[in-house]
Predict the 3D structure of the following.
Amino acid sequence: DPEADPLYDEAVAFVLESRKASISSVQRKLRVGYNRAARLIEQMEMAGVVSPMSSNGSREILPPHS
């Protein structure tokens, strides 16, 4: 992916370890702005790492595809 963020792998590792798939937690952990954190979470959703946002605004960490 040419648009890949250099922090993507670190963001995925953090989400999997912390079990927190929120934009704000990624922002705090990686010290990035809201838009960049939102893009990282969106990329994780497209890659099947996290679920789409549910009606209550939260996302689930999805089990890895084997």
Observations:
- The chain has a mean pLDDT of 92.
